[in-house]
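Example record

One chain of 201 residues, shown exactly as stored in the release files.
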Amino acid sequence: MSGGRELILARIRAAVTGAPDVEVTRAYRTTRDLPGAVELFAERVADYRAAVRVVAEEETAATITTALAGRGAVRVVVPAGLPPEWTPPEPVADDPPLSAAELDAVDGVITGCAVAIAETGTIVLDAGPGQGRRALTLVPDYHLCVVRADQIVADVPDAVGRLDPARPLTWISGPSATSDIELNRVEGVHGPRVLEVIVVR
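Predicted structure tokens for this chain:
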């Protein structure tokens, strides 16, 4: 088996010997200004059956409190680095790391994000400050995510340009959902059943 592989690679090397180097021009667009990005992002997030609210900076803490109260969420996981003003009164710390059973028993999790994409309504987490490890947003049934307006980019190329590919990236487009063979939608199979997003202008 390995002999066949080496034979094929040797033939390829022989065929390209002496061929000139070709410079491949990469003219991909990586940034784009999109007027109304906040509104488009909110609209696309809502299309995924996620609750979304757009608020002013000074309304953020009160909106978080209202959102958590609306879900009856008292025991909420708070990752390290979440801004203090976003932290609920009785936060559940992930230090030492909570087990899957402990995460399943909490009322939800609140995080920030690394970047958000207007055209797709996607939120990207990279385990940075205020986001925590991936399990925090996959196991609890409720995820409240706070997105700052300056984190919203036009589309996927813009987002990729801001992200570090060496970090663990989680791309979230609405609550976890899948469909069976008869196209019956089932939510909460491999992530939170409920996603709520607060966009801060």
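Notes: The helical segments are 2-16, 37-47, 60-71, 100-105, 135-138, 156-162.
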